[in-house]
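go over whats below:
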Amino acid sequence: MEIKKEILFDKVLKKRRSVRKFEPGKTVSKGTLKRIVDCGRWAPSGANTQCFDFIVIKDKKMIASTTNIFLKQAQRLVDFAKGFPAVKKTYLANTVAIIIVLGDPRWKVCFPHASTKDYEEEYSRNNDAIFLCSMGAAIQNIQLGVAAEGLTSAWLSGGGEDTTNNELSNLLGYPKWMKAFGTIPIGYPAETQDKRYRRPLEQCLHWNKYSPMQYRTHKQVDFYESTLRPFAMYRDQEKIENWKDFSEKLGSWSDAFTKQYSNVSGKLEGDEDFTKPRSKGRTTRRRDKNSN
């Protein structure tokens, strides 16, 4: 009996998709939406704080107002996040509901805090990580609940941007110091979507200790950012080697993205500070050079 349950969960897990084309004119019951949100409620959270709230938007007028906020958010990506492969969010108008996953930062007080100044920064960063991991777990649980109900969804992170969050706060009435870390549009898919690109399991699975030969180099990250990102984000192929233009797009990087060993030399790069996002990939640097 346990084996059958594991197989069923595996199917639900792989059925989850980020879909951006929904059938218009559909509806969904409150009971279905309550079951989906209950999946989020059962997510693990730091110190069992359950530092999340869920706003389910089902009213057509409210869906339209929320859609308008994200249309403006998408345009800001075009205007102010140059090079990011943004998509228009007009498809939100055909959702049967939108779930907003709110994070309440007050609950960080329950996480471990330093008793000496020497560890204040370390524990502060760890508190942020615990909080964000708790939010991610709730968002993922909801998306799995959506898939289990035979529906589909996407995860819009744009609500976490201050400008968008302020507009959502004004519309939905929650305090501005809370944040919409997850916006999940729900609907019936207008077309079947295959799985998106996934790294080979043997490349990201390490046994007993980290394998340096499976390390992804800075140059590999830069190549993904400069060349592969828009295709890996939106193409409906789980295996990148099945792309018709695989050789053209990957070139000498083919093995690094398809084989177990992405770093055959086994050499790790020197220590760097990655506490802040690295935003200077090759494309970013090229944009900066062209703008000067």
In short: The two ends are 64 Å apart (CA to CA). The chain has a mean pLDDT of 86. The longest helix spans residues 120-148.
